[in-house]
Amino acid sequence: LDVGGARLPLGRPARPELVPRTLFFDTPRHLLRLREMARDLSLGERHLLLIGNQGTGKNKLADHLLELLRWEREYIQLHRDTTVQSLTVQPMLDAGVVEFGDSPLVQAARLGRVLVCDEADKAPTEVVCVLKGLVEDGEMQLADGRRILRDAEGDVGEDGEVIRMHPSFRLLVLANRPGFPFLGNDFFRECGDVFSVHVIENPDHTSEVEMLSRYAPDVPAATLRRLSAAFTEVRERVDDGTLQYPYSTRELVNIAKHLQVYPDTPLSQVLDEVFDFERHEVQTRRLLKEILQKHGVDLDGERPRPEEEAFAEKALRIRRPGEEEDIEGSRGGDGDGDG
């Protein structure tokens, strides 16, 4: 495979179902990031760290690169309750019996697959240290007493005390940047020196509009350009500290997909679904409206939604099992009857 001059060998997967398949549209910014990742792998880097805000395409880039290379993938998602044991051992249900077996990390290291480690910034410090030891020292102690070693010597069996790290083992770590609103650990500060680091940002205006047009080919191009320009300014306000939540390409893609499937939905209503979290932040809401209106997009937050209007106009009554329906009351009677 040749990615912008970076050449990598194609894999021959023993289990093709482990090769990821994802919907990916080639854009100039994403192709540039793929070339940089492929270049580092071709130069001998074994482990990559993709870091950036949520929704910027870290998972898409990792999965698409593995799909192009036909490399088998194991996946693990870390969180605040992840322990060292859960990192190396996973419960499995076999014939109605819960058993504990090797985690995706151990299987990837043993069989030479690529481990995609998602949300790494959410992991506790002790788990981060274990990952760093695996990458830097090529060693990891498992809960059952076995060890993964990169430089193991001799013929080590599958059930032996030492698991030889496969030479094709790779680690792709995905992490959000530190700080609000992610509030995770600073993974780059702790482990950035042992990875080849790639910062994944939102695509530029041209790349973003091109990608949106692929997701929503029937939406007018002028609408997509206005939305991209408005979101670009929103992100700039996040960078200078005026706004806090980093609205990303993911939210914009969801808006475009909604307009593609439901073209009769007013744009203001679709935007309301995205910015609802800011409904009670008066100043933030006002600033968002000003930015969107500057680019010809209206954020109508004061208009009640149709379902809310219908709910308010409809008289509700709980009818328990066995009770007959109050026909007169349902027709809007004046309530002057006996009862």
From TrEMBL:
InterPro entries: ATPase_dyneun-rel_AAA, P-loop_NTPase, VWA8. This is ATPase dynein-related AAA domain-containing protein. One of its GO terms (molecular function) is ATP hydrolysis activity. Residues 299-339 are annotated as: Disordered. Transmembrane segments: none annotated. It comes from Zooxanthella nutricula. It holds the Pfam family AAA_5. One of its GO terms (cellular component) is cytoplasm. It comes from the Eukaryota. Residues 47-179 form the ATPase dynein-related AAA domain.
